[in-house]
Amino acid sequence: MVTTLSRPSVEQLTEFRERVRDFVAANAPAIVAREGHRAPENAEQEAMLRQWFALLFAEKLIGADWPVEHGGDPDHHPLRDRIVAEEIVRARAPRPVDQVNLAAHVILHFGTEEQKRTHLPPIRRSEDVWCQLLSEPDAGSDIAAVRTRGVRQPDGDWIISGAKLWITDGHWADKGLALVRTDPDSRRHKGLTVFVVPMRSPGVQARAIRTIGGAHEVNEVVLDDVRVGPDAVVGDVGSGWSVIMAGLDFERFGIGGNVILLELLVEDLVTVARLGDIDGRPAIESADIRHRLATFACEVEAAKAFIDDHVEQMLAGNDEPGDSSIAKLSFADTYHRLSAHGTQLSAAVECGGRDDDALREARRRLRECWLWSRAYTVSGGSSEMMRNILSKRRLRLPSA
Ligand SMILES: Cc1cc2nc3c(=O)[nH]c(=O)nc-3n(C[C@H](O)[C@H](O)[C@H](O)COP(=O)(O)OP(=O)(O)OC[C@H]3O[C@@H](n4cnc5c(N)ncnc54)[C@H](O)[C@@H]3O)c2cc1C
Question: Do 180 and 193 form a contact (C-beta atoms < 8 A)?
């Protein structure tokens, strides 16, 4: 889509960044963001997170790209979104739940006017947090293998039954966007429909899955004869595949756009190298270690440059198929290698006595990021699948 948005000047962007920084400093809840620990751990944290997300919406720092009649900002520009994301991450403040924005875009693009009026305002007030009910035990990379079924009833309602797996925030989300097979005779991409499922409906049960860092972020969600009305269908019956694919592109960019996390990882790596000793000398004095750090810093710059360039290309209508896969792949793989190297270096250094607290904290974060790093290479589509998509859509290679 070619847009006529005028690019804000450097001064305007700097001013905007300062405003966001001040806002985050003044309003972010006292919950330090930890990778792999994004869901609230108790009711008090949940209330704090909901209030924080509602404030960000009210200030039009998130959801700024929505149409103005639904609360978007008339001055919205994608470069501002990047600044908001960067400032939140840099302040180590909690990041908004990605699935919320994703669901909102699906509703905005495919929903009826009635669905927009019903579902969008509670998102902005953060009364409704959303999750995505797509993956299943045998339908992850191969999402077209979805078996959860929806059966239309004589009164027009639908009964949905099945099991969804790895559902981020499924235990505290209010609504879920579910991909369901509604034509029992259909195969693969056909016969699928997207539904809004209220997560407190009778028959919805979220079962916790503990991740390697001990957090409760993801769930198995069982849908046992869950009844929803005809107004729960998003898009046309049978058109679920194209609805979800549009949403997934958005999600992959969202993950890839977290490049600021890579910068923070490099900073932690430098801290460990400066403050930790190897053989009695600061690790940073080793040519090998400096070389690795410089190589990683270059890779991070390349990942950032791709995201920045994509914003420009998208605005000019020159974005290409597979861009979102490149964004996700370069972020996730760089994050994994950086945090793995950081964890190895952390284990190799001795405390040099220069700043124990800073060293301890950098080591802790690197380890936490490393433990979470595989989540990025899998969620939203694995790195292997991103390469498959690129070979097909971008390079037009024949299928194996
Ligand atoms: C932290 C986390 C959060 C998640 N959140 C959600 C969520 O909120 N909602 C949701 O619906 N899902 C969610 N998922 C699920 C995620 O989308 C799937 O895990 C992912 O698509 C992979 O599917 P799978 O786990 O079934 O693995 P599989 O598809 O079984 O893949 C196993 C391995 O085989 C490889 N592989 C599979 N097929 C191919 C192929 N054709 N070519 C090459 N290699 C292949 C994969 O790359 C992977 O390495 C989440 C996952 C994680 C880890």
Answer: yes
Q: How far is CA 100 from the centre of its chain?
A: 10
Find out whether the beta carbon of 135 lies less than 6 Å from any atom of ligand 1.
Answer: yes
pLDDT digit string, tens, across residues 148-185: 999 999 999 999 999 999 999 999 999 999 999 999 99
Host domain of residue 153? 130-238
Distance from the CA of 140 to the center of ligand 1, in angstroms?
Answer: 4
Degrees to nearest 5, angle at CA 323 with 319 and 324: 125
Determine the distance separating the centroid of ligand 1 and the alpha carbon of 358, expressed in angstroms. Answer: 36
CA distance 327 to 18: 27
State the catalytic residue, choosing from 113, 251, 263, 361: 251
**Judgement on whether residues 207 and 327 belong to the same structural domain of the protein:** no
Structure tokens at 320: 């290409």
Using a 6 Å cutoff on CB, does residue 381 contact ligand 1? yes
CATH code at 320?
1.20.140.10
Q: Which atom of ligand 1 is nearest to the CA of 143?
A: 21
Comparing CA positions, the residue from 275, 324, 335, 274 lying closest to residue 299 is 335
- Could you give the dihedral angle defined by the CA atoms of residues 376, 382, 388 and 393, in that order, rounded to the nearest 10 degrees? -60
Q: In this structure, are 265 and 342 located in the same domain? A: yes
Tell me the DSSP string of 150-219: EEE-TTS-EEEEEEE-S-TTTTT-SEEEEEEE--TT--TTTTEEEEEEETTSTTEEEEEEE-TTS-EEEE
Q: Is 218 in the pocket of ligand 1 (CB under 6 A)?
A: yes
Ligand 1: residue of 167, 369, 376, 379 to mutate (most ligand atoms within 8 A of CB) is 379
Query: CATH code at 199?
Result: 2.40.110.10
Q: Is 263 a catalytic residue?
A: no
Query: Which tens digits make up the pLDDT trace of 211-256?
Result: 999 999 999 999 999 999 999 999 999 999 999 988 788 888 888 8
The pTM of this model reads 0.94
Please indicate, yes or no, whether residues 291 and 201 belong to a single structural domain of this protein.
Answer: no
Q: Is the same domain home to 350 and 321?
A: yes
3-class secondary-structure state, position 349: coil
3-state SS, one letter per residue, for 70-135: HCCCCCCCHHHHHHHHHHHHHCCCCCCCHHHHHHHHHHHHHCCHHHHHHHHHHHHCCCCCEEEECC
Distance CA 356, CA 333 (A): 30
Q: Using a 6 Å cutoff on CB, does residue 253 contact ligand 1?
A: no
